[in-house]
Amino acid sequence: MSSPTEQEAVPASLDADARVAPSRTEPLVAAASRPVGGPLGEHAAVGRHWFWTPQRIGLLLATLALMVSWFGKASCIQQYTDSNGENQLDWRAGRPYVAMCYSDIVPLYSAERLNQPGTFPYRTSWVDNAGTPNAQVRYMEYPVLTGLFQWVDAKLTQGWVTMSNAGWLPGALPVAIYFDITAFWLAAAWLVTVWAVGRTAKRRIWDAALVAISPLVLVHAFTNFDTIATAFAATGLLAWSRRKPVLAGVLLGLGAAAKLYPLFLLGPLLILCVRAGKFRDWARTAGATVVVWLAVNLPIALSLNPGWREFFRLNGQRGMDPDSLYNVVSYFTGWAGFDGPLRPGQTPTALNFVVGALFLLCCAGIAYVGLTAPRRPRVAQLCFLVVAAFLITNKVWSPQYSLWLVPLAVLAIPRWRLLLGWMVIDAAVWAPRMFYYLGTDHKGLPQDWFLGFVVVRDLAVVGLCVLVIREIYRPALDKVRLAGVDDPAGGALDNVGDVFRLKPVRLPQLSASRR
Fold first, then answer.
1. How much is the pLDDT for 339?
2. Residue 485 lies in a domain
3. What confidence tens digit (pLDDT) does each residue in 479-495 have?
4. Contact in structure between 352 and 435 (CB atoms under 8 Å)
5. 3-state DSSP assignment of residue 89
6. I need a labelling partner for 343 at 20 to 30 A (CA). Which of 18, 152, 375, 454 fits?
7. CA distance 44 to 33
8. Neighbours of 158 (CB within 10 A)
9. Cβ(375)–Cβ(9) below 8 Å
10. SS3 87
11. DSSP 3-state assignment of 377?
């Protein structure tokens, strides 16, 4: 059993505890630093300022980015006075798409019946398409923690409106107040994400600035409720890196109760723990995850089961979204899909099977990579591969889902130019998406333009996956593993030798004459 330092040589001239300065290591940052004096000098005093630490600068940058993001959505909470003298939300003339300010938070306030007093998620129901053959009883469509989050924000909105009517607070349309209250908590969740990534990155703490100023944050921080899940996932990885497996499981369980994807992080941890002989640590994390998820879900599942099952029912019946690869293939080939045209309420059984099979196949491939690499991969590398595989193979890739990848990508491949290039491409998909939804009848874009951007985005993510796999098999190229560093996010796995490893399958080589 060999140690990580024996498995792969690293430069000995670098200090493993020295903070990495991006102005020295990243050409993009070095060029950007020229107007303020250029890269950090060799004799500069580092880490001595009493207030402006890299962590606080990252949080400041994230705050500024979130302010820009809010202003980008603010156009969709403007109001006007109609002919009856009543204030209305100004969504006239396709404003959400023309101004590209659309946010799910605004229509869901009334669609989920949060604007009505006395309602409670998973208990309150309504009928869609009433009086037609396609009539359906509906409930809150989000996982429990996200649904309760929306309900609490709605109650805070009602309290604000009450105090506003009494003259104690400024007033506005309830939906605008609801959006602002929700945006405040979502912004706080993203700040927690930035903080956790900075703490997990350790000597590469400046990499958290990529999370803070990501173009995806500018566009999608307030598109939906996904920053809640990123906060729990990032803090869960931080707890794991601090050798606190139970706390990591608690945080991942809460994240899975908000969005499903933090649950996927248990898979990479399992592979790495099996390889390092740390299965007990993984079992403690997985056990805590399951217990916390059940503690959040069971009270609703047992008392309000039809409402609790709504999230799973809708995901099962959902067809391929416009931004999935299945829809891209369907559009450009004329293929109707695995199940053909679906009737309302019909489950796309074949599509669901193919989606699940492809994701499991990708997970098997990632497990093979994790068990055959010459040096045990870093936690963030495998976590990024699993979440990226889920998004690529899934039948739904809502635009805000890309936020899931941002913290993992920064920890897995801290290459600023490549990551910013991908983030710009991914964020830019928002523009053709909005004008595609506007419709060609209203001077919008045809579908093929939008799908072309989707393909470019997917290729960019696939390219990042290829780079991660390349660095896994050639760890000398991994920028994190310089100066003898093993895995800053590894926790119990950091600087631990292997007890189990598969030998990679070697294809038979051709003889010299046949070559």
1. 60
2. yes
3. 999 878 899 999 999 99
4. no
5. strand
6. 454
7. 15
8. 16
9. no
10. strand
11. coil
Residue type (1 letter), 64: L
Q: Which is it for the CA torsion 361, 363, 365, 367, positive or negative?
A: negative
Q: Which residues pair with 17 in a beta bridge?
A: none
Q: Which domain holds residue 112?
A: 53-131+153-493
CB atoms within 10 A of CB 8: 15
Q: Break the chain down into helix, strand, coil percent, rounded to 5.
A: 65, 0, 35
137 phi, psi to nearest 5 deg:
-80, 130
E strand or H helix that includes residue 126: strand 126-128
**Contact at 8 Å (CB) between 415 and 479?**
yes
Phi-psi region of 131 (alpha: psi -120 to 50; beta: other; left: phi over 0): left
Q: Is the pLDDT of residue 512 over 60?
A: no
Asked whether residue 127 is domain-assigned, the answer is yes
Do residues 247 and 240 touch, judged by C-beta distance below 8 A? no
Q: What is the pLDDT of residues 238-286, one digit of tens each?
A: 999 999 999 999 999 999 999 999 999 999 999 999 999 999 999 999 9
Q: What is the pTM of this model?
A: 0.91
Report d(CA 74, CA 397) in Å as an integer.
24
Q: Is residue 323 over pLDDT 80? A: yes
Task: Please name the residues in contact with 318: beta carbons below 8 A apart, sequence gap of 6 or more.
Answer: 348, 395, 396
Q: Buried b vs exposed e over 177-187: b needs ≥16 C-beta within 10 Å?
A: bbbbbbbeebb
- From the number of C-beta atoms within 10 Å of its C-beta (0-12, 13-18, 19+), residue 342 rates as middle
Tokens 């037609």 sit on residue: 132
- Does 178 score more than 90 pLDDT? yes
The residues that bridge with 79 in the sheet, in sequence order, are 89
Amino acid at 167: G
Whole-angstrom Cα distance, residue 75 to residue 67? 13
State how beta strands 136-138 and 126-128 pair: antiparallel
Report yes or no on 144 lying in a domain.
Answer: no
Which CA distances in Å does 133 have to 114, 127, 138, 140? 27, 12, 15, 22
Has residue 476 been placed in a domain? yes
Please give the radius of gyration of the chain, using alpha carbons only, rounded to the nearest integer: 24
Q: In the structure encoding, which two tokens stand for residue 151, read together?
A: 């309900």
Per the listing, tokens 């559009």 go with 331
144-165 vs 245-258: helix crossing angle, rounded to 10: 70
Compute the distance between CA of residue 69 and CA of residue 221 in angstroms, rounded to an integer. Answer: 7
CA-nearest of 179, 108, 174 to 141 is: 108
